[in-house]
Structure formats: structure tokens, C-alpha cells
Amino acid sequence: MRILVVEDEIDLQEAITEGLRIEGYAVDTCSNGDDAYELAYVGDYDLILLDINLPKMDGFEVLEKIRAHNNDVKVLILSARGSVLDKVKGLDIGANDYLTKPFAFAELEARIRNLIRRKFVQENNRLACGDISMDLSKRMVFVGKNELNLTKKELALLEYFLLHQEKVVSQEELIEHVWDASADSFSGAIRVHIATLRKKVKALLEYDPIRTKIGEGYYMSKNVGDN
CA 83 to CA 98: how far, in whole Å? Predict the structure, then answer.
């Protein structure tokens, strides 16, 4: 999942970003309202973590501008302003959640998981396709009863495939949602990561659930005989 962190306190921004990247999220950052709106307008983010007290344009105005053209992206406000009036205003103009600073990183992670579940109409903490299952809370993957050991990037790729089963996902879409803005779309890295992911899954599953549609992209299917 690709997340935009908008926070002008650089130490906090870096701490949040490092924690999210360790958990396998693709993260972009900025520290003012103008850049936040520009990135939100041109980028395809799954979630935006948005501070309110920002230079150039405050978070409420950023949120209003985002909602004028995008009602799909999830927005979680992170703010030291914890009054009821601020929370009500944020939620009324389109925030999906509001977390008051200071907060525990574990709580932030839980709220992110909850928002992602809502986006993809996921009712619990598990994703599944045939014998493959992923525990979103523990970030663990199983094939049957066997745990599958994946790198953070492989885990992020598999999560995206599980959330979009039977849909052909282009390489460009994967770059948008699994890599951050520094990714080079011509590096071939995505093909390498997908190849290693497929090899690991196939070793336990005995067939490859990630299929290639030539000229279009990849898709995940639980049908053994699907090509």
C-alpha cells in the first residue's frame, strides 16, 4: 500500500516513515500544505496521513481541496489539536479518521489497517485466495498450515494481489501502490520481486497462482488450471 505522510515536524515525519517502511508500506513525504495537495492530486495513494498545522496551506484546506476531486483516498488526520470542535470539523470535511498527538505507533498501525480494510471491504484481518492466507495484523502469510517467509516487498506485492484477485494489475499500477516516488519504472526490479515471490509460493502450493497476461500485467487466481 502506498501512503503519503504530510508532517512538518521532521523528526516525527522521519519516525513515522521509517516505521511504515519497516512494515512494508511504500511511503512518500512532504512538509507543507502546497506540496501535500500537489502530491495528492497527481499521485495514486491508498492513504494520506495529514497534519493540520502546516505551513503554506493548513491541513483542513488541503483536505477540502482533495475531496473536491477525490473521494476515494483514505485520509487519517494526525494532529496535536485534540478539541472536539477540531475533530468534528476534520471528519465533517472528509477525514476518515482523526488521531491526536502524541500517539503510539502501534495504534497508528491499527488505524491504518482498519482504513485499508474499509477501502477494500475487508471484514476481518485476513485475506485469502485458495490455500494462501495473510494475517494483516501480524503481517504473516500461510500456505495451508505452512508459514511462508517473504521479504517486506514480496509481502506488499502479495497483499496487493490478494486485494485485487482475478483483476489484471499492470506493472505501472504496482509501482504506484507498492513502491514510493523514488522507484524507477524501467529498472526491472518489479519483475525480479514478482519472480522470487512466485517461486516461493509455488514451492509450497505446487502451482503458480500469480499469472501473467502478456502485454497487460499480472493477476492472482485460485484456479489451478487457469492460464
Answer: 11
For the whole model, what pTM was predicted? 0.64
218's grid cell? 499480472
Of 95, 119, 143, the domain-final residue: 119
- HEC assignment per residue over 125-137: CEEEECCEEEECC
pLDDT for residue 227: 47
* C-alpha–C-alpha distance, residues 138 and 134, integer Å: 9
Q: Could you tell me if residue 225 is inside a domain?
A: no
**Residue 38 belongs to a domain with what CATH number?**
3.40.50.2300
Q: How many CA atoms lie within 13 A of 113 on its CB side?
A: 20
3-state secondary structure (DSSP) of residue 7: coil
Based on the fold, state whether residues 61 and 106 are members of the same structural domain. yes
Q: Which of 49, 64, 45, 43 is nearest to 16 (CA)?
A: 49
Give the whole-angstrom CA distance, residue 169 versus residue 165: 9
pLDDT of residue 184: 62
pLDDT tens-digit series, residues 36-50: 999 999 888 999 999
Q: Give the percent of the chain with pLDDT over 90.
A: 58
Report the DSSP pairing between strands 2-6 and 26-30.
parallel
Evaluate the CA torsion angle 225, 135, 196, 48 in order and state its sign. Answer: positive
Q: What is the mean pLDDT of residues 73-87?
A: 91
Single out the residue of 151, 210, 182 nearest to residue 22, CA to CA. Answer: 151
Beta bridge partners of 210: 220
And the C-alpha cell for 68? Answer: 473536491
Among 189, 155, 158, CA closest to 171: 189
